[in-house]
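Q: I have 376 residues here and want to know how they pack in 3D. Can you give me a structure?
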Amino acid sequence: MSDVIRIREIETACGHCFGVASLNAPASLNALSLAMVDVLQSQLTQWATNPAVIGVLLEGEGERAFCAGGDLRDLYQSIRDCGGSPNPYARQFFSREYRLDYLIHTYPKPLLCWGNGIVMGGGIGLMAGASHRVVTERTRLAMPEIGIGLFPDVGGSWFLNRLPGRIGLFLALTGAPLNAADALYAGLADFYLPHDGRDKLLDAIAQAGWQQDAQADAHQLSHLIESQAPAAARDETALRAPSLLRNHFDEIQVLMGHDALADIAARLAAAAVGTSWLAKAAANFGRSSPTSAVLAKALLQRARHLSLREVFQLELDVAIGCCANHDFAEGIRALLVDKDRKPQWKPARIADVDAALIADHFRSRYPGENPLSDLR
């Protein structure tokens, strides 16, 4: 058993197993470290080729979070040490994290992600590609990277483009928090179960018959999940909170529009009045990195017709570019190191983010091929 990932297998009535991998850092809200990434990559690969294992459950230890995002402490130190010079740690961190996310998206067996509690950034990266994504009454999702000078990565340029209307751009620019009903409405989750129903679901998995056929077993798992809470799966009132995305959909469409980021920024500034969910989201945009805002919009535009593999390769270039520029390190400092929550963005205005700065984020910073060029 790993210190950072708790690994076990549930024996089923038909003699097969269901693998369980639990992120084991509850004190940090299961922030995803490079050590966690490596253990998960190895274990999921092993389970994928083991005929006795018919599916996988991915979850987080503790009651508060599945995964609150990437563990940025070592990454921040590497940025401080390397500055604009080549940063081997950043290259390893992002390439291995994205490789794991891609494995989950393309996993050959049913993979259930129990998205209880906080699911942010890198946590959504783990959850987005799972075949069976479960949210609970405690789930709170967000892609808040713009607030630390990054961008919605971990495949965000791919899955945000596939949300209804212009919701993906709205979430990328504002980091707005989502509840379980929002996740179901947007297509970021597939099922709702109350958190106290987890053990009952595991019992049902253990008692079920499995066929060692990925498609048939995926259908079986869907039926098992739905059978645990049929009312909650069909009735939004059972989720305890309505979908704010659904309620504000038309307003979000108007705010995002189809024009330049400067126009969107003006509308968001006008909307950032009051204490409503939408006003708070708009206000968060105003506090966030202007460079990240331009990057987020540019990435969604560039990735619109790319494959998932191509998106991860593109995001790797830009993530390493963020490490070599100013705002990412400054955002981490303000939020996690000095905790003054007063980042000094450079440039400080969207109007001052020029094409050369954005192009510098997109250029390759490693010798030879993209480290993810072998994804298939």
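Q: Anything worth noting?
A: The chain is about 50% helix and 10% strand. The beta strands are 5-11, 17-23, 53-60, 65-67, 111-115, 118-120, 132-135, 140-142, 191-192.
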